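Tokens in:
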């Protein structure tokens, strides 16, 4: 063949499992002057032999000959008479891939793909300082690459790429295993749901790269704050969860163990962080739940701990609180009311009541009215604004509700203007701060 010998070398890597040395097979080479028929005999004697490296007088590899190639040639008529006594260098494949033992596995894989898949069959030669060491098969390379890709896919599916911690999916699997173990061994387990207080301000002021550094430091602190048998996971954003295993079966004792673990985490995360050359502090809010209900699912346990954490946020942050079923009832009630509130907006269940405003204490001359919104629920009847306005503010529904109030009040004002007794009245309405933040708020009012 006319192709030149391909010798490739890369920087040495420390880990042998990352280099082709991992595949090294000792294989006695043959000299370039060995006759073709003698090489054929070597293949006949060793049925496992797939290829033979060919060296020159300086012990440098110069090519390769495979079992398939030599058998195919000598199966032809008169082939032994024509070429049997010639040196094997006349039959060798000089385009063989030759790499130093420090070459990375991924690099060799790319070389094989670029050079042609026939090298996967013939294999490649491994050298040290250009001196022959041995050979490696393409099949070994393919199996290793496949195995590594499978592991990479597994890691992508089960581990957080920023912190290296298990993700929610892997945490759920481990909770299942922990629940089964708890039933067998008569012990208890628990989940801590951790959210960083005011993390958004770090991202907004220092940037997301610095925020990522903080999350990595938090992950490290959490990992060293628990036992090896426990699981620390990143749920997403600035939310983490910890599965505490092998707790006491007695409720009081396990509660004390959870409190102890929580306090250790609070202390660890409150310590200053070095970010962007400066020192910052951040506190955690922790919700906890004991995994005692055998009918509950892993997702439900995480939800319980999340609910408890939310209550910590509402009550001041920077502490630990246990889940209470009453918490869940309140949240479920709020979620139901939000759903009903959206329906009320669609079905126009709101009404405006008007509180008359008079001029002077004794004259009682009407000068205007204040528009007061009321929700007339088809089942519950009148729902107090104190109950639904906060939900509307939190969910953003206050914007379409506020717009409806403006339109309904203006429509009423038009009706009053047609009557001499009420033509001079003005209407006052309550406007949410969120409405004032709308850039086109004034235009919306003028359009009405």
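Residues out:
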């Amino acid at each position: 063949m006319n192709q030149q010998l391909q010798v490739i070398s890369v920087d040495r890597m420390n880990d042998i499992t990352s280099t082709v040395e991992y595949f090294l097979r000792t294989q006695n080479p043959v000299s370039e002057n060995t006759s073709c028929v003698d090489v054929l005999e070597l293949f006949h004697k060793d049925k496992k032999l797939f290829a033979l490296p060919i060296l020159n007088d300086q012990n440098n590899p110069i090519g390769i000959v495979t079992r398939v190639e030599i058998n195919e040639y000598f199966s032809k008529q008169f082939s032994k008479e024509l070429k049997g006594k010639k040196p094997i260098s006349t039959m060798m494949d000089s385009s063989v891939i030759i790499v130093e033992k420090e070459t990375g596995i991924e690099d060799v894989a790319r070389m094989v793909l670029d050079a042609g898949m026939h090298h996967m069959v013939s294999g490649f030669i491994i050298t040290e300082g250009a001196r022959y060491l041995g050979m490696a098969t393409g099949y070994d390379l393919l199996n290793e690459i496949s195995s590594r890709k499978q592991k990479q896919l597994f890691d992508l599916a089960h581990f957080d790429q920023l912190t290296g911690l298990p993700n929610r999916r892997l945490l759920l699997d481990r909770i299942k295993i922990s629940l089964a173990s708890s039933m067998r061994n008569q012990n208890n387990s628990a989940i801590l749901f951790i959210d960083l207080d005011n993390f958004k301000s770090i991202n907004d002021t220092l940037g997301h790269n610095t925020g990522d550094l903080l999350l990595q430091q938090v992950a490290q602190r959490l990992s060293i704050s628990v036992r090896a048998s426990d699981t620390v996971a990143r749920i997403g954003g600035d939310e983490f969860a910890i599965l505490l295993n092998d707790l006491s079966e007695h409720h009081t004792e396990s509660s004390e163990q959870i409190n102890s673990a929580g306090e250790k985490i609070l202390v660890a995360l409150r310590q200053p962080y070095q970010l962007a050359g400066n020192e910052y502090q951040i506190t955690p809010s922790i919700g906890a739940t004991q995994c005692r209900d055998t009918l509950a699912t892993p997702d439900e346990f995480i939800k319980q701990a999340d609910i408890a954490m939310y209550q910590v946020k509402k009550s001041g942050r920077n502490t630990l609180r246990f889940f209470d079923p009453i918490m869940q009832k309140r949240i479920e009630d709020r979620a139901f009311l939000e759903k009903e509130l959206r329906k009320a907006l669609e079905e126009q269940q709101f009404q405006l009541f008007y509180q008359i405003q008079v001029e002077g204490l004794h004259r009682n001359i009407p000068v205007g009215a204040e528009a007061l919104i009321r929700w007339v629920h088809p089942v519950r009847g009148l729902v107090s604004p104190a109950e639904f306005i906060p939900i509307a503010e939190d969910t953003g529904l206050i914007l379409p509700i506020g717009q409806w109030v403006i339109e309904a009040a203006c429509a009423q004002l038009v009706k009053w203007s047609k009557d001499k007794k009420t033509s001079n009245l003005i209407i006052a309405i309550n406007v949410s701060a969120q409405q004032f933040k709308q850039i086109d708020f004034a235009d919306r009012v003028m359009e009405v």
